TrEMBL record:
UniProt keywords, alphabetically: Hydrolase, Membrane, Metal-binding, Metalloprotease, Protease, Transmembrane, Transmembrane helix, Zinc
Gene Ontology CC entries for this record: membrane
Family: Belongs to the peptidase M50B family.
Annotated localization: Membrane
Pfam families registered for this protein in UniProt: Peptidase_M50
Enzyme class: hydrolase
Presence of keyword DNA-binding: no
Topology class, membrane: Multi-pass membrane protein
EC number(s) from the headed UniProt entry: 3.4.24.-
The name this protein goes by in its record: Zinc metalloprotease
Length: 449
């Protein structure tokens, strides 16, 4: 990667969206702890967005609470009096318990305080998904509408798939929508068999062992896309040398190389940077030749018609009250998929931790390099679900670890000792920091692989 080739615009968009998204998620998560602690009469000493080792970017004390913004965007925290947490304030714990301290409260109140952040993140995700469906609706691609078949990348071709194939089933289960095909493949824990219609004939493609691992490691995980012809929708940015494209023209060739579909057009111009090229376009019954100039990325700058208009997508619009149950269902399904993905990391040879684990670098890239509000809120909802699930895991230093010890106390009537809680908190922090360092190392390795 050279400095000149680095896309600073995409980097800025990813960083900006990452910070905004996680600021929302962390602030609301910590607000859950804060508001329930205050509700039960606990003193909250600090409320911080992001961590602030050594110094803070901003802080202000209001009443008994110091509010601030740290400089390490990897989380946030509230410091509740009388609680063994990230601060590891051992001296305060040596003093007699006070009525306003966390440790003085009944176990059921402490349990609510511990789980409040997770609950807010989960409810927030369901609300976000509901609002996405209300504002933008839901778009699906029926497999029966892919009359031109699919375009496949080099990895898909290496296992026997071909451009123009139409995949009908995965392991014998009929594929109704394009997303079902991806889910059926990616969440499989056994060898994958694809039922394919090719040139009017039915055939079976058995994906070899190791295919999903290669797919996960590949820089481009596109694998396949819907195939469609190249129809001009807009040409405002095109640099013409001679002739002119018109809306509705269908591109059928380039420099005397003829084709039918968009993927073939992309392949035909892949090496044609900063030069004049001749496009052959079908206009009604006539063929016209138009000479245009490409840029340094081989782009000709015309806007093709939306493939959804050509293929025919299934668009579902929701009223406000219809979107709420639909959003809840969508969020629950996403949580189930995430849990299934975690399970496959431990049960399937195809899904490896080293291929799937990522740090803030991987997370930032998921925003796509452009500022798209639908994508931003979709990713924020997904991260909110993941944050809720990860925090409820019974690991010391996470909310789930604190909740587990509190449940133990409620069941047995015996409270874990402060010394035990200190060691458990330290062990949990070491585990989490080690995992974060490992994930960051994997991402750095991938940048140079």
């Amino acid at each position: 990667m050279t400095l000149l080739a680095f896309n600073w615009s995409a980097f800025g968009a990813n960083v900006g969206q990452f910070i905004l998204s996680f600021s929302i998620l962390i602030a609301l998560h910590e607000f859950g702890h804060f508001i329930t602690a205050k509700w039960f009469g606990c003193r909250v000493e600090k409320f911080y967005l992001f961590f602030n080792p050594w110094f803070s970017l901003w802080k202000k004390k209001i009443g008994e609470t110091e509010y601030g913004i740290g400089w390490v965007p990897l989380g946030g925290y509230v410091k509740i009096s009388g609680m063994i947490d990230e601060s590891m304030d051992k001296e305060a714990m040596k003093q007699p318990a006070q009525p306003w301290e966390f440790r003085s409260k009944p176990a059921w109140q402490r349990l609510i305080i511990m789980l409040a952040g997770v609950i807010i993140n989960f409810v927030l995700a369901l609300f976000i998904f509901a609002m996405i469906l209300f504002v933008w609706g839901e778009e699906k691609t029926p497999m029966q509408n892919l009359r031109y078949g699919i375009a496949v990348d080099s990895l898909a071709k290496s296992v026997g798939l071909k451009d123009g194939d139409l995949i009908r089933s995965v392991n014998g289960k009929k594929v109704v929508y394009l997303d079902d095909l991806r889910k059926g493949m990616f969440f499989s824990d056994k060898q994958i068999e694809l039922g394919v219609k090719r040139a009017g004939m039915d055939t079976t493609i058995v994906l070899p062992s190791g295919f999903l691992s290669k797919l996960t490691r590949a820089k481009s995980a596109q694998l396949f896309t819907a195939r469609f012809p190249v129809i001009i929708d807009e040409d405002k940015e095109v640099k013409y040398v001679s002739g002119k494209l018109e809306k509705g023209d269908t591109i059928i060739g380039l420099n005397n190389q003829y084709f039918q579909y968009f993927d073939q057009y992309i392949a035909a111009k892949k090496d044609l940077k900063n030069q004049d090229i001749t496009l052959h376009a079908l206009r009604g019954k006539d063929t016209v030749n138009v000479v245009v100039m490409t840029d340094e990325n081989t782009a000709t700058k015309f806007v093709p018609r939306n493939p959804g208009e050509i293929i025919g997508l299934e668009m579902i619009h929701y009223s406000f009250f219809e979107a709420i149950p639909a959003g809840i269902k969508y969020g629950v399904n996403k949580l189930a998929e995430y849990v299934e993905g975690i399970k496959l990391l431990f049960t399937s040879k195809e899904h490896k931790v080293s291929d799937n684990l990522g740090s803030v670098i991987s997370i930032g890239k998921t925003f796509g390099g452009t500022w798209d509000w639908e994508r931003f809120w979709t990713m924020t909802g997904l991260f909110s679900i993941i944050l809720a699930f990860m925090n409820v895991l019974p690991i010391p230093a996470l909310d789930g670890g604190h909740a587990l010890f509190t449940l133990y106390e409620m069941i047995t009537g015996r409270k874990p000792g402060d010394k035990f809680m200190e060691y458990a908190q330290m062990a949990g922090m070491v585990l989490l920091l080690g995992l974060m360092a490992y994930a960051l190392g994997l991402d750095i390795f991938r940048l140079f692989r």
